[in-house]
Amino acid sequence: MNIAVIPAGGQGRRMGNLSSSSPSKQFLLIGGVPLIVHTLRQFELCPDIDAILVALPREEIKNDTLPKLCKEYGLRKVLPAVEGASERQLSIFAALKSLAESDLHERIATIAIHDAVRPFVTPKIITATINAAKLYGAALCALPATDTIKEVSEGKVVRTLPRACIYQAQTPQTFSYRLILEAHKKAVAENFFATDDAMLIEWQGKEVFIIEGLPENIKVTKPSDLILAEFLLNQSQQS
Question: How many structural domains compose the chain?
Fold first, then answer.
């Protein structure tokens, strides 16, 4: 089995205009549909994904938010949600721990971890990362940097990094199930926090392979990203 893990446990305060009564950013609307639904649809449509596990805030689980959305939008691969955390890494670990304790444990081959607020991933990209993870153990999609990258300290340029070697990481990041489960267990034991899951694999001295991503596979984190997401959605619907 190939399972998608979607961490959606946080509030997304970088959106800036969210009040305590506002929906979390993963439930903000683009094209009249919650962001997270656009994301889940891509994994629903991917023939290589067998099930989807979402980590949600406790309140959303209590309110049956996910089952209601699944019913409304015809999402059939989504498993009962697990309770996430404000830290992304802890949400993913909660999901992995839940799978390890489930009847699915012995059948899982790969885990595709994807940001809830990257709604423009494609089934083709998801499948490519799964195939690479089966071959190499760990893979992520990423884009070559197009801007010149400067390393800065105390407001001053330290050096210019060679652009040919710089990639911007995206998701999905896909791994052998046992490899990523053990990486998260070790990180919890040693209180190590990474900025993405691939970094946990790097931290253990293991290789992560690159699948070239898509420019439109944006992460919606700021109000301006919502405007861009609406534009991209309109473009995709017209084409």
Answer: 1
Query: Distance (Å, rounded) from C-alpha 14 to C-alpha 70?
Result: 27
Q: What is the pLDDT of residues 161-214, one digit of tens each?
A: 998 899 999 999 999 999 999 999 999 999 999 999 999 999 999 999 999 999
Give a yes or no: residue 146 inside a domain. yes
pLDDT digits (tens, 9 = 90+) for 143-162: 999 999 999 999 999 999 99
Domain hosting residue 131, numbered range:
2-13+21-227
